[in-house]
Each structure stands twice: as structure tokens, then as C-alpha cells.
Design goal:
single chain; two-stranded antiparallel sheet; 4-stranded antiparallel β-sheet; 29% helix
Length: 110
């Protein structure tokens, strides 16, 4: 499949982040998301459509409370994506606290 980063936006929290600051690290994840899909989909259909990924960026730029939709047909997909997001370093939020983020990726057939 082809994986493309569509958009991101802060959707909650006490801190502040500009969406344009989020785009570079989230775009860097796209080839790795494809690898997660390829690895998880051995023997099952590949992911198609939109992936809505939610997580919190703490004051140190690390992600936590990562919410990846589960795929009953490919149980290793969500843990793979969670590990990717957890390893990425994001911009540090301005203000008093963390920022909840919604990131959207599109998976399409080749």
C-alpha cells in the first residue's frame, strides 16, 4: 500500500503546539507505518482507508497515551505503530502542559 500523511491538529491539553510544528515528525513516520502494515498483514488483507492516530505529547516532547485502532485480523499492527510513535521526538509544547494530538494518515492500494 501507499501511506500518506494527511493532517494533524492539537485537540486538547493544557499546552500549545502549532500544527505546522507537528507535520515534519508525523510525516517521517509514513514509511514506517507502511512497514507495520506489511508486517502485520502477512496472510490477511492490507489496511485501506484512513488511520486516525491519537496521542499526547508531554512537556519533554515524548508521546504517551497512544491510541491506535485495533485490527482483529492483524493484531501486531497496533503495537508496531505504538512503538513507532513512542520512539519519535516531537516538539515540546508551549505553555503549562501536554498536548493531545490527532494525526491522520491515508492507506491506499498501489
Amino acid at each position: 500500500p501507499t501511506v500518506s500523511f494527511v493532517s494533524s491538529e492539537p485537540i486538547g491539553g493544557d499546552g500549545e503546539l502549532d500544527p505546522t510544528d507537528l507535520d515534519p515528525p508525523l510525516a517521517r513516520l509514513t514509511p514506517f507505518l507502511r512497514m507495520c502494515d506489511e508486517h502485520a498483514a502477512v496472510g490477511v488483507p492490507r489496511l485501506r482507508g484512513v488511520l486516525e492516530l491519537r496521542f499526547v505529547i508531554s512537556r519533554d516532547g515524548r508521546a504517551s497515551r497512544i491510541d491506535v485502532p485495533r485490527r482483529p485480523d492483524a493484531p501486531s499492527f497496533a503495537p508496531c505503530v505504538t512503538a513507532l510513535v513512542r520512539r519519535e521526538l516531537f516538539p515540546t509544547p508551549r505553555g503549562r502542559g501536554s498536548v493531545e494530538v490527532l494525526a491522520i494518515y491515508r492507506f491506499t492500494a498501489p
